[in-house]
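Exercise 7. Predict the joint structure of the components listed below.
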Amino acid sequence: MTEDKKKKHLERLRQHQAQRSTGEDAARGGSSNSKPSAKKPASRNNNTKQNGGAKKTNRIQTNGMETHRGQAIRASRRTHEMADKLIEIHNVQEISPERRANVKPLTDKEVLRLTPLGGQDGIGEKNMQVLEYGDTAVVIDCGMDLGIDLPGVNFGIPDASYLDKIKHKLKGYIITHGHLDHIGGMPYVVPKYPAPIYGSHFTIGMVKKVMGDRERGVEVENFEPEFVEMNMDNHEKLKLGDFYVELIRMTHSIPDSSAVVIETPLGRVINSGDFRLDPEPLDHRPSDVERLKEFGKDGKTLLLMSDSTNSQKEGRTPTESTLEPSFHDIITKAEGRVFVASFSSNMNRIQMIINAAVAAGRKVAIDGRSMLSTLELAVKLGTIKVPRGTVTTLKSMPNLPDREVLVVQTGGQGELNASLQRMSVGEHQYLKLKEGDTVVISSTPIPGNNVRYDQISDDLIRLGVRLYRAPTHKVDGVGPLHVSGHASREEQLELIDYVKPKYFIPIYAGPLHRKYHMENAIYNGGFDSRNTFMLDAGETMDFVNGVAKYGPKVPVGTQLVDNTGSLVPSVVVKDRVVLAEDGVVTVIVTVDRKSGRLLTSPDIITRGFIYMRDNAELMDGIRNELKRAVNQRFKRVELDRFKQELKDHITHFLFEHTRRSPMVIPVVNAIGSNGKSQIKPKPKPDASH
Ligand SMILES: [Zn+2]
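Solution:
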């Protein structure tokens, strides 16, 4: 606040307080007609007439405020509208059992229906689809959305209430791979709509981990999920109701990723999963192109749904093997300790780093809970090979010569409290970074993480370490340090060409990336533009006699999960957004029920609004307003009405003096004349407005 503004503000406060006696006197005299003070400037008279005119005497008098009550209410409404908008972006749905799809369940055997319940609004966004026909329905993937930036919200899960309609015919969950945006919703959805879970060896391992993740706070009590592991290499086919399901090996950035092939009575449906067509992945298990090509030969592939993540990237995604020399170079040549940050589930990358460490005579420690548990799983399942004696504990690292230390860690996105971030600010329990250390960030920032990514890089440079980062590897003077796990445009076209579908629907990304994918198919792949569709979450695509058309809409949305793993109602999150914007002011008055007199001086508690000590005058002003309000109105109206008036009045008063609209919570303790306390419980925040 400038000096000038501050003076004006104080002047207004003083005038205000000078006027309050008028109001109090009026109330004591039993009349609610305020007589404007003679000292008041003319302009104030006008305002007072407007605010305190005959029509509006049935509430606490505004006593000469410059702003209108309406302005204050509108300002407060704007904050609430902003909160609503922030929540609407994610299409947040209440956790209500009443919410039901107003769609007739499919019963006839002429329609095959595809319904995305998520995954079509962005990359890494709670992927989930339903495919149904007659008495058979299957769910493909059931992920979580980690990209939700709302206060106290950890992630979102799909609103799966549509499954209520079809749970009687749900034959299974078929999972493409073990990334959280494909499996993270399962602990919430599967117990509610139980059915066996199908997936590859490593995928089932990851699903078991997520379903039993007590530390995440996920409760899957009294529920034993049924798991069915499928063999991709012998092209095992399983019958689920009227469907036959097969998994096809695809290269991605987590072991045992797969495409899903479903033979239905009305044609073959293929979901690519997340994929790329890397011919030389480190585990020597490339995408099963031969099998994919077979599906293109019989003309029975009705529909291909394919991963659109990299549809804005020209050419091909480079093969993973291009990274190997870079890691060998850095890890062998470094004189001091080496730290490599990577995605926690990218086991091929971690295998590559471990191989380079072994070649350079270094011991390896893993830092990061999710990385360690995934690595343990990968070792147990034989997906990754670690020579005996290579991996050691983080604790023992400080005892080794620098030349023998290598730490693989989480936090390659700059995530707060992940291993690398704690090291970058010197808050790591065992290891302090120092000059002579080498840090490698083996990931590029996911959209939205750029700020943190750059912040952590700055912090690392400040510590004097040698830093190599994937996006700047050329400038840093080393080879490539990261490749994407997703197909670029050429590979996307190749997949369409392999399986030769009649219809093509781009999936697993927002409209922009899906549109790029679709146009790539039409203009560069020669795909018939009439046979490719944009399909949003909640829309359905019906295939009748081999012809696709949009079907009815079903309810979709996001349910929010907090850090304890519990679902949070959107009204609570909305309150948090409002609080984050302007803070909260709680006013507490204790009143003698009989006499209507204040028994103690009113209390004011603020959080995130203003610093009380620097604003003693404003606090006094609020206190005086509270006293005046009690004197004027407490005995005249019902308690609930009084509280509402108090809330409106203090909101207006605060807006008048600060132009802010904090959430105001009035607490009125009415003490009975018999001496017993009749203190009303403090209202819940969501009930007070
Ligand atoms: Zn993935």
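Discussion. The radius of gyration is 32 Å.
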